[in-house]
Amino acid sequence: MRFSEILGHTKELNILKGAITGGRVAHAYLFAGPDGIGKRQAAFALATALNCREFREDACGQCPDCEKAGRSVHPNINEVWPTIKAKGRTKDTEDGADEPREALEKAERPEDGLIRIPQIREILGFLKLRIDHGRKVVIIDAADRLMSAAANAFLKTLEEPPDASVIILVTAHPGLLPATVLSRCQRINFSPLQDSTVAAYLTAGQGVGRAEAIEAAGLSQGSISRAISLACGGAVERRGSVLERLGAVPMGDAFKAMQMAEELAKMDGLEEALEFIKGWYRQTATENEIAEGQSGNGAFRRIWTSYRAVDEALYDITPPRYANRQITMEAMMLKIAGLAR
Ligand SMILES: [Zn+2]
Fold it and tell me: Residue 290's pLDDT is what?
């Protein structure tokens, strides 16, 4: 991965390039920003650049180091991600200190896993190795999943990292990291990508039609991965269909509201549908907040109530809560139809 292959983030990447050319690379970085916008790629681009033998503003992409980094087998680059305990093992404890390494497997969703003490021990061992070229780089994905005991084990190293090493913490939730960890890292904030950047990528890189690319980009909240799943998974049509059916439920019509609740509860992609509805209310609320000042018609309050109802329902049905879908949808629809508070 080269800096030039990353979409957007020109300012942030220039800071990193400048640090390399100026010999001012920090020992620890925090790459913060929403999911799916390219933070992890930026971490890999930095790791590659620090090990490239022909670096000039960017990694060369040709040398043996770039080649190994490209295949994710470079001995100087180590990535850590949240893990779950393999099946049949003992349950989680906050200091899983004696868990054997092989009992851990990568969590499919970072929020389901933790970065554990045995993983940090392995990293500390790696950082002690002597190398004759480049830098040892550790990339910690979803760093907010660092178990507090693991974060403690790590702190001293963050403060006095071994020579020729760089630690990059990548997270969408920097607020969840202990202040003691945050204060030891140079923070780089990555912003959501511009809609136009996302749309251009969808048309050029993914062969998505222009109209659909623009719509998906507008819904993507600046995240490439979200935009791809929207544009390539037919989500744009699914969103249109859900919003159309919701629009056919008149205020105060309990029968239609219950019908819609049942329909939603039976849907396979219920969480996605609720995200669409929530996004629509948020957008409409923003537009009405501006109009409200002039008309004072209470539309904003009504939309806001609906937004809150959808947000709460979404929270209730997702793991680990798993509320009853039918009951949750009924309560939500009654609020949306103005029949309950
Ligand atoms: Zn190279």
Answer: 62
* pLDDT score at 219: 83
How much distance in Å is there from the Cα of 82 to the middle of ligand 1? 29
**Residue 209 Cα to ligand 1 middle (Å):** 35
How many angstroms separate the CA atoms of 171 and 152, rounded?
18
pLDDT number for residue 86: 79
**What separation in Å is there between the alpha carbon of 17 and the centre of ligand 1?**
14
pLDDT in tens, 77-125: 999 999 998 765 554 555 555 544 458 899 888 888 999 999 999 999 9
CB atoms closer than 10 angstroms to residue 24 = 10
Distance 33 CA to ligand 1 centre (A): 28
- When the pLDDT of each residue in the chain is averaged and rounded to a whole number, the result is 89
DSSP code for 3: G
CA atoms within 13 A on the CB side of 114: 18
CA torsion sign for 85, 88, 94, 96 is negative
Average pLDDT in the 36-58 region?
95
61 CA from centroid of ligand 1 (Å)? 5
Q: What is the pLDDT of residues 128-186, one digit of tens each?
A: 999 989 999 999 999 999 988 888 888 888 888 888 999 999 999 999 999 999 999 99
Q: What is the DSSP letter of 187?
A: E
**Ligand 1 mean position to 312 CA, how many Å?**
50
Query: Two tokens at 55?
Result: 């670096």
121 alpha carbon – ligand 1 mean position (Å): 30
Answer for the pair 58, 17: CB distance below 8 angstroms, yes or no. yes
Q: Who surrounds ion ligand 1 at CB < 5 A?
A: 52, 54, 59-60, 63, 66
Where does 3-189 sit in CATH, by number? Answer: 3.40.50.300
Q: Using CA atoms, how far apart are residues 62 and 45, in angstroms rounded to an integer?
A: 14
Residue 11, pLDDT above cutoff 90: yes
Residues 138 and 157: beta-carbon distance below 8 Å: no
